[in-house]
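Example record used in the benchmark description.
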Amino acid sequence: MNPLLSVVERKLQSLPVAVQLEMPDGAIVGPTDPKVRFVARDKGALAHLAEGAVGVLGQDYVEGRIDIQGNMRDVMAASAALLPGSPVDAARGGWLTELVRKVVSVWRHSVERDAKQIEFHYDLSDDFYALWLDPRRVYSCAYFRTPDMNLAQAQEAKLDHICRKLRLQAGERFLDVGAGWGGLLLWAAENYGVDATGITLSRNQHAYVNKLIQEKGLSGRVRMELLDYRKLDESTPFDKLGSVGMFEHVGRAQLPDYFAKLRRLVKPGGLIMNHGITAAGLYNAELSSGMGEFIEKYIFPGGELTHISSVMGALTQGGLEAVDVENLRPHYARTLWAWSDALEARLPEASRVLQGEEGARSLRAYRLYLAGCAMAFEHGWIALHQILATGLSDGRSDELDNPSDLAYPWRRTYMYTDA
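Model output (structure tokens):
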């Protein structure tokens, strides 16, 4: 027997779900009633299957070298079992790797490159995202405050969770850095009465949110600008600031400067909420087995993950103090499965929206991306942290007396009091 085929057969037999493989010559390996089918059109894909290089196998799928058939939850169960070990541990590099990563991080995150990278992802197609996001198009981790919440309810709960942590008050000036399709921006304005400004690098999002602002009669109190965060004017600081699902695009080497910029954008005593994906490993910016390369190539070019301990260090370097930190990892796993299930239920419509061979490749990539990330959050290979921060203390003694110039009360009672 072919040694490669022998390895593949043993791999398939060890998987927790029934998987069948169709070889390039039409030969069938595996059970007759599988839950998942791999149809290999290229011998190279067989080698990737034998290695357990699931990210590279994902690239094979996107490029048409292998077809993957079956429920995405079963596909991910098989994928996790194919891995040769922890994708977190295997991605760790030595000091030279870290040095190279730092140099690359600085190079890849210029204002111009970041704009192109954001356009690559977020301007793919508004109609495509609308197929599987909630009605508010909130493209970040939801907050399932109760187990029975559906996605739309959990996204509204997340928006309110952030607003409550920030203790938003009517009349305050609020800045949303990386405002997406305007979910938080509009929720804060409509439910908390703030004067709200959002920024984005996505032209599609910019146009979409400004249209919503006009339709809702919020012109004059809410605005969306097409602007890089580094170019924001600091002369009139805001009362509160939110940054949701944005700092992953900043780059690890730029994080101290990023947090310093956020600090300068907020009044002394004001609050900053940073909500974003973090790495599970202390030293790796991506997952191994080709998973990180898959995300970089097809989904988020320029994206870099950082362990929460390093994020906290960068936050301190930027002149901020963390006053509350919450890990929402399982919430993001459930959010991603909800997105994945919604996309799988509307594949014919998605194919009509993303037309041509490029569109078909994008759809295959997103199918794996959503389900694969759900699996990664479930396994704890990546996490999601909300960090509430304020400027470093200047030595005052009245912080527990609720002085009017300090937004944070140093007690959690405000989180549990009905608004």
